[in-house]
Amino acid sequence: MTVNVEIDGEIAIVTIENPPVNALSGTVRQRLLALADALDGDPNVRAVVLTGAGKLFVAGADIAEFDRPPEPPFLPDVVARIEAAAKPWIAAIRGAALGGGLELALGCRFRVATASARFALPEINLGIIPGAGGTQRLPRVVGVTEAIRIVAENHSPDGREALRLGLVDTLVDEPLVPGAVAFARAVVGQALSPTSIERVVPAPAANVWTEAEARITASARGAAAPPQALQALKHGIEHGVEAGLALERSTFLALRATEEAAALRHLFFAERAALRPAELRALSPRPIETVGVVGGGTMGSGIAAALLNAGLSIVLIEQDEASVLRARSTLAGLFESSRRRGLMSDEVASEWMARLETSIGYGAAERCDLVIEAVFEDLAVKRSVFAELGRVCRPDAIHATNTSYIDPRLIADGLPGPERFLGLHFFSPAQVMKLLEIVPTPDTALDVLATGYDLARRLGKVPVRSGICDGFIGNRILRSYRTEAEALVCGGVDIAAVDAAMRAFGFAMGPFEMQDMAGLDIAYLYREAARARGMPVPDMPGDLLVRAGRKGQKTGGGWYDYAADDRRPKTSMDAQRIIAPLVGAKKEMAGEAIVSRLMATMAEEGHAILAEGIALGAADIDLVEVHGYGFPRKRGGPMFQAGRLGKT
Ligand code: 3HC
Ligand code: NAI
């Protein structure tokens, strides 16, 4: 049974039990509709308590159904039927009431909740807007200003705030259901208060709409749903509930069918699947509380910040006093900038710094459950670090390398504890970027691998397992993307046209702007090393630029010129002159053609990666691109794009 009924005197208790998250599947909707009729017809029942089994109320519509046409009964009709019930329905909420779950609760005459309950309309994250009256009932219950924040800006009040907003009528302690039944008994026989939809809400001052429109359009960065959610809300306030509900539903259905919404759903399920790979589900991760980080440069400092953020204690090991001071000051700078932006209080900042120990020499690694190495990208240096760690660390401590390109098997070769060794490849800035490539060697024990996943979860990262190859999943695709972008330039396409096309597609930066920001020299040195090994790597325009001293923004120019203190790229005649020997006759190419060429290249490399077993699934490749390389979320990733093209 997906919805159970129990009778307690005059009160019916309706429990939605549809694990794991009580989603409002077709069966749940049917059963709720039938129950609303049956309970209205039952003379012994005078009120209905509606709750969810387990840890949460209802996580919303069943997102897995969204790839099919909607099937009746539709959720708006279920909500309307409950709202029209002859007897009061009381939603009893613990945990999350999200999306359609909150809309269902809004259809009830009353809402009671625990203080830690959480209320949200997260539909915009799936490229849609609420589709069962949320944009209409919520403003009538909490007022327009608060409703805007919840509907279009992802604000998510807890039980206490919901009580203040009038979204819940009272807070109850656990056990929830007896408290809700007592509330129901108290309202039985009282004159029914207006339903959510019957309430009258004053129209806000005109500037509330204009300011919200400006704010939401700016933060949506091209995403369709947030401004349209606001529009539906506004329409209902200005033209009445009926018109509002009609616009909400038609917008919901139209957005649900878009490519953008399909892409966001694809990522929703991929992100969840990534956290719990089937083969590791039965394993217990090793306990990790104190983590050593060796190397406090760009990556080591970022990794330390991410670990501190997650409440772990850190021992940061550097090679000399100057490097320790530099790492400390980098971390203090990161905290200071969070503090300035109001993201961290002074107390939290000092508590974090108290969990940070710095050291020269390896003695302190003795206390570490895990040590992550982030020293120079040099095999000998890395091996010497792990040799030291092998001498000092406990025999059960896990050792991880953050190498970008070096084969982890070579790093671990011959060192003690190969089963405790793996790659944990963070992305820069490591305290921000969500991707964590997890790279086991053939010797890595499964519980060590499971610990890598558990760490990712604790850090709020998206873990993706990668096999061993040059660049792992992400840098390997990046290389083919950049090479193809340079091939377009060699074919006569304008540098700025390539960047503009990729920006229009949704990247924050095009490939050449990105190279200028990150520096052209790393890829250049990589190619030079390959050439030194006798590999036939032809000169690329980027090589000519580096040889001419144009390494990107840090040298005042790369593909573009930059004025001092201005990161906006300007067309560079110098750069064009330098690369001219490799560039063919000027060629106009439409933005869409540029995008499809670069997408095809990424997908082709992705297919090779899959065929070699480097990635376990196409969705993993999409997660790598979205969470490590700024691939636009609304496009779902290169493999998603390739799959959609295959279907059209
Ligand atoms: N529909 C279908 N499956 C869902 C789901 C939903 N609404 N929400 C979660 N799931 C699935 C997940 O895919 C996962 O499946 P898996 O075990 O096979 O991987 C499982 O439920 C557990 O989910 P999480 O791993 O995310 O569990 P957590 O405990 O970490 O989080 C949660 C629980 C906070 C409820 C989180 O899952 C969540 O935020 N869910 C989505 C909520 C949402 O976006 N709701 C709006 C839906 S759209 C809507 O309601 C339209 C309406 O307006 C008409
Ligand atoms: P970096 O040069 O900024 O920092 C390296 C740090 O290691 C320096 O502070 C140095 O003093 C320290 N160090 C060197 N030898 C040491 C030793 N024996 N003991 C203790 N400390 C030592 O380098 P970065 O960029 O932080 O890279 C570190 C590693 O992370 C490299 O393997 C790199 O390939 C990888 N990586 C880099 C990324 C990036 O975007 N910079 C992204 C992902 C991985």
TrEMBL record:
GO terms for molecular function: (3S)-3-hydroxyacyl-CoA dehydrogenase (NAD+) activity; enoyl-CoA hydratase activity; isomerase activity; NAD+ binding. Pfam families: 3HCDH (PF00725), 3HCDH_N (PF02737), ECH_1 (PF00378). Pathway: Lipid metabolism; fatty acid beta-oxidation. InterPro entries: 3-OHacyl-CoA_DH_NAD-bd, 3HC_DH_C, 6-PGluconate_DH-like_C_sf, ClpP/crotonase-like_dom_sf, Enoyl-CoA_hydra/iso, NAD(P)-bd_dom_sf. Residues 290-465 form the 3-hydroxyacyl-CoA dehydrogenase NAD binding domain. Keywords: Fatty acid metabolism, Isomerase, Lipid degradation, Lipid metabolism, Lyase, Multifunctional enzyme, NAD, Oxidoreductase, Peroxisome. SUPFAM superfamilies: 6-phosphogluconate dehydrogenase C-terminal domain-like, ClpP/crotonase, NAD(P)-binding Rossmann-fold domains. GO terms for biological process: fatty acid beta-oxidation. It is found in: Peroxisome. It catalyses: a (3S)-3-hydroxyacyl-CoA + NAD(+) = a 3-oxoacyl-CoA + NADH + H(+). Residues 471-562 form the 3-hydroxyacyl-CoA dehydrogenase C-terminal domain. It comes from the Bacteria. Monomer. This is 3-hydroxyacyl-CoA dehydrogenase. The lineage of its organism: Bacteria, Pseudomonadati, Pseudomonadota, Alphaproteobacteria, Hyphomicrobiales.
